[in-house]
């Protein structure tokens, strides 16, 4: 090739930009990840934010964890036993557990951590309702004494999603549960590098050399947690198109939540793979307000539930049929407690049946206010689809657009709609949050403890108590099915079905773990 | 002059006080509750109330305002509700990318736009003039995110000359800095090039009608000197005004560019804070932006006296 003056000058000027190693990226085993959200705080007990939960899984370990079949398995615990009356549980910690500051993990650390978690988490509060004391019998033996047998003890401390009972050093775990912790010292497979944390942009974790993994193979949140890269960088990129471009150009290795409309583009991009790792998906729901007309009428709620077609809603919200499925069970389809009870009240969807119910309810044209979170595309679409269905059956619908933060305060209002109240708001949960009736917020029917919507139904509360006290898988499954039937009967929420959010990654990234929650241990970058 | 500057500096105090009051009240009166966001979906009303107490949001608005102002007077902008980090730290982390983007944009815009404007004025009515004005209209009309994606697709993904996203500090690696800042700078400059070129053209055209320009030409002054010294020099006041306001707008208003190119700057910080109702960050940033506007206006006013000796304060 002939070297001209122009090509020489051009090449010289472009040289700094063309370096392939390029663009300032560090070498070595670094996994660059675009997380689903920005890590705004580092206390996974103080907040239920999923991104803080994922941070927790990086930094902390837990006594028990859910495997890929969503069954609890020991994690920090080596062995455990229950007294004959079922009221005393002892857990012996496995050898080699230490915090990132080098101090050994003790039973007192575990006791303090469980107590803090029990003051914030719904399942934790339910569990601590049966707890007499939690203490360290010795350095490695944790003892939980109950006032009555509690069938969900292991399920509670093994819960997979927010809030996870992560184990922290006692001094940190004694922080007021309503105040953020300031230090993120854990005993998990990665160390949080606080000095490199730039909220809104970057979070850095490095491999914890002192972590001793379990011998069992990795399975969901359980088994061996082996950090196979030296460093994990979460690079928060707010714009989905920029995320897609960054993955296509190889500037990042992993994109945790690929929007459905970008998935086909990435699927065709060279060197990029798209895959659904979450086996049970996320469930959309539109919550009813039981205090305010017209949704304070059970027949109106049933009419709306009958009018809404999951298929239409999911097609509008998600689009690609590969990434959604109809599921009438309030426990995610494919999860252990999936049930079919009560389905006949909502399926098949029918506008004619819904109109009959509305007539039976003596609906007189009262305004139905639906809150629409415009900054969350999927749930925003749910609000619009439900609004359309309600109009189709003759309701006077007012869909009010606002951001999610506004909804979180607006939904706390119990006043009638003409005084700032509301009737319905859409939201979604990962399947891991809905595995049982104790972790499903929409099923609480005691108005003093209930999620906004405030259903009052002693029978549903009795059924939940029965579930909590049930022992054995069959008894729990039966109790869960009864709860589902009752929840649909009284209309706690419109079940919008299941959707899946795929991950995108460079084809040299291996070791992803199928789970409702994103984990980064076991993942590695292999040479081409 | 010194008295003028002192007066202007002192006048920032009541302006900032009014800004502080208005921002504080607007935030507190707008819907949204950070405690509810923090508490999450499982939280009971009692739990949300406890968080509000921890955050001090249970206090009357006037008490919250007084507490904030007292801390502000001690140079303490407060602590982010969500990250628990000092607002000053969060702002410090973001100032450099935004400042660098603003500087490169304004420098690039001036370097391109002023010659274009002068050229258009000198060749008024010709195809060159029309071409520059067409470019200006396009620069105004095409949204920055469209240009940004276009550049990314062409130069980052297609040709692989530049990275798609991110920011590197010039103090760490000048080459990486230039590679990362090039595309956002060019994308963001389009509108400023259009604006400055149009203002320059209009100002220079007006000056070219003046008697002293005719005199300069009559005396045999070369056209280049007439344009650059006599015309441009005297047309500088409106151009400097536009440039100054452009810098101010860039400091707080580049959120779209920052999002498209994933630059962790102040624009994104304020939008994230608004979406989460992180009051201390919003308050701190709006005060900062107000201060930037005030200081830049002062600098522009002082610059007038240097550019036009007739202006005296």
Report on this model:
The complex is a heterodimer of chains A (528) and B (313). Chain A is an alpha+beta fold and 528 residues long. Chain A has helices spanning 5-18, 50-59, 107-120, 122-128, 153-157, 170-173, 240-248, 263-268, 298-307, 310-317, 351-360, 377-392, 404-410, 458-469, 473-490; strands at residues 30-34, 61-62, 64-66, 72-74, 77-82, 88-93, 131-138, 141-146, 166-167, 190-192, 202-207, 231-235, 254-255, 272-275, 282-288, 324-325, 367-373, 396-402, 424-430, 493-499, 503-506, 509-510, 524-525. Helices cover 28% and strands 20% of the residues of chain A. In chain A, strands 10-11-12-1-13-21-14 form a seven-stranded mixed sheet, sandwiched between helices. In chain A, helix 3 packs across helix 4 (122-128), helix 9 (298-307) packs antiparallel against helix 11 and helix 14 (458-469) packs antiparallel against helix 15 (473-490). Chain A is globular, with a radius of gyration of 25 Å. Chain B is mainly alpha-helical and 313 residues long. In chain B, helix 11 (236-252) packs antiparallel against helix 14. Chain B has two domains: 19-73, no CATH class; 93-307, MetI-like (MetI-like fold). The termini of chain B are close together. The chains are: A alpha+beta (528), B mainly alpha (313).
